[in-house]
C-alpha cells in the first residue's frame, strides 16, 4: 500500500502542473487566434470594398473615354456624309479637308471615302491607296443596309500598315437614297493600348473594350483581340441584368479568378471591362495578414513558452537522471554492436585500437590487428591516396574523409570510407580517431549510375537510328556558331522520292537507306569544326563554320555524288537509284539570325527539288529570281 500511494502521489505531482499549464496555454491561444481571425475577416471585407469602388470608377472613366473617342469621330463623319450626299467635291479640296480632320482628332489614323465599287475616292493620306476594299465586311454591310448609323467593326489588320485597326464606317447615300459609297475612319488599336498602359492594375490586371455583341476590340495588356465572348457570363447574364456591374468570375482569357467591373456606354454599342486578379487585389490584405499572423505566432510562442516554464523545472531533474542512465546504456550498446569500425591510430598509422565490428565487416580479428600498420591493409593502388590524406596537417575541430579499397580476410576487395580527425592527447603524441564504413554496395551503385548517365547523355545528343547529332544538339551548335562566326554555311539535304522508297521496299529497308546516307553526311564533317545532324525524317543538315558559299557548294556536290555512287536501287525514282537534293545558304548581312539562315537553305533545297531533284542549289542564286517572280498583289497588300 505505501508503495502504491507513493506512486500515485508522484503521478499526481507530474500531472497537475501539466494540466494547469495546458489549460492556460489553450485559453490564451484561443484569445489570440480569435482576435487575428476577426481582424483578418474585417480587413478582407474592407479591402474588397475599396477594390470594387476603384474598379467601377475606372470602368466608368474608361467607358466615358471610349464614348468620347468614338463620338468625336462620329460627329465629323456625320458632317462629311451629309456633304457627300449632295456634292462631289474635287479631290484637291476634299483630301486636304480630310487631312485637317485627322490632324484635329489624334485618335484617327486616317479617314477616307470608298466609291460604290470599293475603290478609294478620297483619303486623308498623302497618296490615295490603290487597293480595293469591296471585300471588307463594313463595305458589304453598308452596301446592303440602308441607314446612317455608325458601324464599329471588329479588329482587322490594316492593308496599309499591317496594324490591328478598329474601323468606324458610315453609309453614304445619294439624294435618291441609293448607295453612294462608304465613309470610313481608322483607329489604331495601339491608340487605346497606349492610353490603357498608363494605369497600374498589377499582375493579372486587364482592361477590355468590347462591342455589346461580345466581340473583343481591345484587351490590354494581352492580345486576344477579335475573340467572341458572347457566351461568357458577362454577355450571357451580367450585362442583361445591368449595364453597370461588378462581379467575381474566372477569366475567359487566362483562367484565373478575377474581379470584373464593367460598364456599357449609352451612345454606342461598347462595353468596357476592368479586371483585377484576386491575388493582386488582396495583396495588401495578405501582407497585413502575414504581419498579424507573425505577431500572433510570436504571442502563441510566448504563451507556450510561459506554460512550458511552469513545469519544466519540475521535470528537469528527473529527465536528467533518466537521460544519464539511458546514455550510459546506449554507449555500452553502441560499443558492442556498432556496424562501423572504430579505430585509433598513432601518427605513423599504427593501429592502437580496433572495434569488434571489424570481424563481421572484413573477416579480421581486432586483436590480430593491434600494433600493425593500417597501410598494410590498403589496396596498393590506393596507398598513395591514403598516405596523402593522413599526411596533411589536420585541425582538431575538422574531420577528413577518404574512400579507398581494402583487402578482406578472404582476399576479396571491399570499398571503405573513413572519417577521421586529429585527437588531442595529454601526452602530446599525435593520434587519429577514425570510423570506417563498408561502402562497397554504394560504390557499385555509383559506378553503375555514372555509366547510365554517360549513356543517357549520349542518347540525349544523338539520333538513335543514324548516330548523327539530333535536332536539339544541332540547334544549340548552330546558335553558338552563328553568334561567333562571320562566315557560316548551312547545307540542307533531302532524300529524293523517299516516301516511294519506303512504300516499295518497306520501312526496314528505309532505315538502312537512312543509315547509309547518314554515313556519307557524317564523313563530310569528320576532322572538321562542322557538325552533321539528322534534321527530321529523311532530311539531313550540315553546318560548316568559316566556309564560303562556293566551298560549301563543292562539299554539297561531293555529298550528292557520293550518295549517288552508293547505287542504292529506288524504283520510285525516275533515275532508278537513291539520290539527294541539296540547298546551300551562307551567312550575309541580310540574314538576321540562324533561323533565317536555315530558312534560306530550305528555299534553295525546294528550288533544287523543283528543278528536277538530284542536284544542289545555292540560296544566293535563288533570291533575285524569287523577288522577280513574286506576284504584284503580294507586294501591294501588307
From TrEMBL:
Instruction: Output the Gene3D superfamilies linked to this UniProt entry.
Output: 3.30.70.270, PAS domain (3.30.450.20)
GO CC terms: plasma membrane
Report the PROSITE patterns cross-referenced here. GGDEF, PAC, PAS
By its UniProt entry, which InterPro entries does this protein fall under?
Answer: Diguanylate_Cyclase, GGDEF_dom, His-kinase-like_sensor, Nucleotide_cyclase, PAS, PAS-assoc_C, PAS-like_dom_sf, PAS_fold
- Provide the transmembrane region boundaries: 15-38, 293-311
Residue stretches making up the PAS domain: 327-386
Enumerate the Pfam families for this protein. Answer: dCache_1_like (PF22588), GGDEF (PF00990), PAS (PF00989)
Q: What class of enzyme is it?
A: transferase
Q: What is this protein called?
A: diguanylate cyclase
Catalysed conversion reaction = 2 GTP = 3',3'-c-di-GMP + 2 diphosphate
**BP GO terms, sorted:** cell adhesion involved in single-species biofilm formation; negative regulation of bacterial-type flagellum-dependent cell motility; regulation of DNA-templated transcription
EC number in record: 2.7.7.65
- Domain GGDEF, by residue range, is 486-621
The record's annotation in NCBIfam families points to:
GGDEF, sensory_box
The GO molecular function terms of this record are: diguanylate cyclase activity
User: Matching CDD domains, A to Z?
Assistant: GGDEF, PAS, PDC1_DGC_like, PDC2_DGC_like
| Assigned keywords, A-Z | Membrane, Transmembrane, Transmembrane helix
PAC domain: from which residue to which, for each copy? 400-451
